[in-house]
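Give me structure tokens for this 91-residue protein.
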Amino acid sequence: MPSAMYGANPEQLTSLGNTLKNQVGPIDSVISTVTSALSGTAWDGPARDQFEEEWNNTFRATLGRLTEAFEAAGNSCVNRSTQLSSLMGRN
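Here you go.
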């Protein structure tokens, strides 16, 4: 939703940053749950080998990059909010 405001509301920016950082836990939980379920599943053959390879080399790696991106973007939002609040005299 476009706005006439240029810049950011520090409180909302902090909230956005925290929301992004809070997504890391659920994504880590998905990684852990699937990895554990896969290791505990009696399943042999080429289909398992293919899935396990895709899980370890593609899906899990992508989810790991997603958590890194959310953490970095969240930290960036919080840091920018702190800087903006300081500039606005809202320490």
